[in-house]
Amino acid sequence: MHNGPFPAEADIYRFRKQKGVNLGSWFVLERWIANSPFRFAISPGQSDLDVARGSNAKTVLEEHWDNWITEQDWAWIADQGINTVRIPIGYYHICGADPSVLQGTDFADLGDVFAGAWSRITKALATAHRYRIGVLFDLHAAPGKQNRDSHSGTSASNPAFFSERRNMPHTIHVLTALLSNLGAFSRAQTPPLPNLVGIELLNEPAPGGHNHALEKWYRETFRALRAVDADIPLYIGDAWMTDQYAGFLADSKVPFAVLDHHLYRCFTKEDISTSAAQHARVLTEGGAQTPQMFGRVSRKLESAGGALVVGEWSGALNPGSLQGSGNQLKDQKAFVEAQLSLYERWCSGWFFWTYKKEQAGDKGWSFRDAVNAGVIPPGWDWWQRSRWKTALTEFAGGIKHETKPSANIHHIGHVSSTPPSSPVPELGFIGPWVKRRSQVYVTAKGDTNRWEYEHGLPQGIAAARKDFANMYC
Question: Start and end of every Glycoside hydrolase family domain (predicted)?
Answer without folding.
Answer: 61-356
